[in-house]
Amino acid sequence: MSTTQTVSSVQVKKAERYATTLALIVTLGPLFYGFEGMVLNGAISAVGSEFHLGALAKGIAGSAGIIGGLIGSVIAGRLSDHIGRRGVLLWVGPLLMFEAIFGTLCPYLGGYPFLLLCRVVGGIGFGAATTVAPGYVAEISPARIRGRLISFRQLAIILGLLFAAVANMAARQIAGSSSAEVFMGIKAWQVMFLCLIIPALIYMVLMPFIPESPRYLVTKGKDHEAARILSRLSDGTDRADNPAALQQIQAIKDTLGGGASQALGMVAVLKSKWRTLVFVGMALAAFQQLTGTNGIFFYSNTLFQAVGMPESSAFQQTLILTCFKIVGVTAGILLVDHVGRKRMLMYGGTLMFVALGTVATVFTVAPMGANGPDISHSPVLGFLAVAALCCFLLGFTSSWGPIFSVMMGEMFPNQIRGSAMSLASGSDFLFNLIIVLLFPYLVEWSPAFTYWMYCGFGVLAVIFAWKFLEETKGKSLEDMGK
């Protein structure tokens, strides 16, 4: 290898490390999303007792963050076309910190209604972060590693869930229960909320260090600044006259009609020639939720109890599930830029619907008890259901979990990326909300029917990916409009 080639290789590695660092910082928003969801999962029983809530009121408290996420996702993409991807992400930090601080203090500041407000505000923050982060990472990533960098979003959510589970367990161990006092009148469930300050603070400290997306800068006519950032992302140098960066800027301009351009709003996007592409993105988001990712865990405690793990071992169960999630998402990160997005969705989706069909079969053949199908006295059915649950986790976290984010960041042309991301992410949060609200009622009525329904959606998801998705592996973002 010649000296020039050696230097070139070193520069490429330096550029990849810089892009990876930026991607890791940006995914702190999705980490908060996972952290916040698990905090509420651990605190909801105590919150219900604190404010004397019924089942409906607890359900509203549980879904308030998703409602906020829906609002944030719809606003964020389009807003990022006006104030920049970095501009939106900078505003996320204060919203996350608001929930962390005032959610802890809600018993003294207005009780249950104020808690709902805090959850909605925090939801707006992580909804904006999870919407804009994939697009930002796509816009700063070299094509050869773009898939794995965007996939960090799913890993961040899983790690957030794990860290919060540890914090919840520690708070309960110290106090004895989620409702017990820890110190100075502060109860364990409030300490759980207080722990949200940690990821929110880390996010606020690191976010100012990221640069603006070079593609956004080009839309605003700031070519000189964009060239310097693209130079760092291509060969690790900081040159505004870098030939590769200038060539890329010209390619971006060509997609914008020759120069700085105003990105299309959501209504204009839905009337444009790309509307079918946007509908495909929204359907992709819907299928990600309709395959049961937020529903199958509802019965996880029952499944573990059927194989001899008591309800008191909730933390051990969380660790088992988290290990499978981490294995799955790691496999997705390593494979996505080699196997391709479309094939990963089809392979992972197939594993998912087979697993869902297995769980549905277990509930179909299980003997009936006082409250529906009872697998607590059948170790064989219990092991089969737990194995299917773990296979589902491997399938989802290696494919539809991270690759939805990858596709959302990659598949839309520069002219519509902000608005299209809002519509796709909004669809994701909307169907998430619908499933969270309806699943308890459906599964109480018929667990077998519910999981057969998810299995059917899994089959449709694989067919959809095969028929309607175009492979984006290795393509530049400027090729997406073609």
Keywords:
482 residues; mainly alpha; Growth Hormone, Chain: A; two-stranded antiparallel ribbon; 20 helices; globular; Sugar_transporter_CS; transmembrane helix; membrane
Write the layout of secondary structure elements.
Layout: H1 3-26, H2 28-50, H3 55-83, H4 85-109, H5 111-140, H6 146-175, E1 181-183, E2 186-187, H7 188-194, H8 197-206, H9 214-219, H10 223-234, H11 243-255, H12 266-271, H13 275-290, H14 300-306, H15 314-339, H16 341-365, E3 368-369, E4 372-373, H17 379-398, H18 400-410, H19 417-445, H20 447-468
Antiparallel strand pairs: 1-2, 3-4
Helix pairs in contact: 1-5, 1-6, 2-3, 2-5, 2-6, 2-7, 2-8, 3-4, 3-5, 3-19, 4-5, 4-7, 4-8, 5-6, 5-18, 5-19, 6-7, 6-15, 6-18, 10-11, 13-18, 13-19, 13-20, 14-17, 15-16, 15-17, 16-17, 16-18, 16-20, 17-18, 19-20
Keywords: Membrane, Transmembrane, Transmembrane helix, Transport
Family: Belongs to the major facilitator superfamily. Sugar transporter (TC 2.A.1.1) family.
Transmembrane segments: 18-35, 55-76, 88-110, 116-138, 150-171, 191-210, 276-299, 319-337, 344-368, 380-408, 420-443, 449-469
Counting DSSP E segments of at least 2 residues, the number of strands comes to 4
Shape: globular
Secondary structural class:
mainly alpha
Mean pLDDT: 83
Number of helices: 20
CATH topology of the largest domain: Growth Hormone, Chain: A
Distance, first to last CA: 37 Å
Largest sheet: spatial strand order: 1-2
* Strand-residue proportion: under 5%
Q: Number of domains in the coordinates? A: 3
